[in-house]
Write a structure and sequence with these properties.
There is one protein chain. The chain is an alpha+beta fold. The protein contains seven helices and nine strands, in the order H-H-E-E-E-H-H-H-E-E-E-E-H-E-E-H. A nine-stranded antiparallel sheet has the order 1-2-3-9-8-7-6-5-4, sandwiched between helices.
Length: 313
């Protein structure tokens, strides 16, 4: 064998060896990459399917959208929304599933979150669950329940509840109803308020009736319809043909129910604290309902209570 032939053979073997190494790397990279994609897909699928197992066996309804065409209709709906919130808080825990329970030893707030399915009414087809929460604010007596309520029902408090909202859009008032609520006012409390307002969040528009009752320390916000801002969610049902014509612009409207109640309490250790109860239902029409259930059940309330406690320090 000549020198040139030997060199050529060595070069060939080196090129063959390099090609083999390259092929080995590519094949193993493909295997690892494919396994990673498969694993990620499995995790995503598990996350999407998980909420379908939550709160099975629970049931109940939730009032959907209605047309608010007059101050009288607004007052009637506000009274009904307040009573609906009270009835939801009063529902037995046997009809709810605990989805989050943070002991006060782990969190200075202490948070208890439950969920149930909506099986009655126009929102039953949404597949989004209704949630309620109870938390205890331990502020060392530095704040009263009235002070916490006044803050939460203010524009600054709304930013604590919903940091993604646009404050300028939220001030788009469509209807203001004076003299609500009727009845005796608790001494030292601010006047109540009732309005229908437009807002937007994450590309979805909302029209909500916002009822603030300082005497009961309750604030309720529910999606409604109003002639000055045509549109509705895809769940709107009404037998009135004229309403359906006015609100035919359907699909882009998000839908929301939110309620909060504040009370002064004395804990077993004799220390003063503030109990906060909330209700939440929201549907922004994401690609899959599981995204809303994860958000409502797992992420919404911890964020609200954390921001509230920090604001009340």
């Amino acid at each position: 064998m000549t020198v040139n032939t030997a060199v050529q053979n060595d070069t060939g073997r080196g090129r063959y060896s390099n090609d083999s190494q390259s092929g080995w790397f590519q094949s193993h990279f493909a295997v690892v990459f494919g396994a990673t994609i498969a694993s990620s897909s499995a995790i995503l699928m598990a996350m999407l399917l998980a909420p379908s197992l939550w709160a099975s066996g629970t049931s109940g309804g939730l009032i959907g959208e209605t047309v608010i065409g007059s101050p009288e209709a607004a007052r009637s709906y506000a009274d009904m929304a307040i009573e609906e919130a009270v009835s939801i808080w009063d529902e037995p825990r046997s009809n709810w599933e605990v989805v989050q329970n943070t002991p006060k030893s782990q969190d200075k707030v202490g948070l208890f979150v439950e969920a149930r399915r909506i099986t009655e009414g126009p929102l039953a087809s949404s597949g989004v669950m209704l949630t309620r929460a109870e938390g205890i604010l331990r502020l060392g007596g530095r704040r009263t329940a009235d002070e916490v309520f006044d803050f939460l029902s203010s524009p600054e408090g709304h930013a604590v509840i919903d940091p993604d909202s646009d404050p300028d859009e939220y001030s788009e008032t469509l209807l203001t109803v004076p003299g609500w609520p009727k009845g005796r006012k608790r001494k030292g409390t601010k006047p109540g308020s009732l309005e229908v307002a437009g807002s937007s969040m994450q590309g979805k528009e909302f029209v909500s009736l916002n009822a603030v009752n300082p005497t009961r320390r309750m604030f309720v916000s529910k999606s409604v319809l109003h002639n000055d801002k045509p549109g509705s969610s895809r769940y709107f049902e009404d037998g009135d043909a004229s309403h359906n014509e006015v609100f035919a612009k359907q699909g882009n409207r998000g839908i929301n129910t939110f309620a909060v109640e504040i009370d002064d309490i004395v804990e077993d250790n004799g220390k003063e604290a503030i109990k906060v109860r909330m209700i939440k239902y929201a549907d922004l029409m994401p690609p899959h309902r599981s995204f809303m259930n994860w958000s409502n059940c797992k992420f919404f309330f911890p964020g609200v209570f954390k921001r509230l406690r920090e604001s009340m320090k």
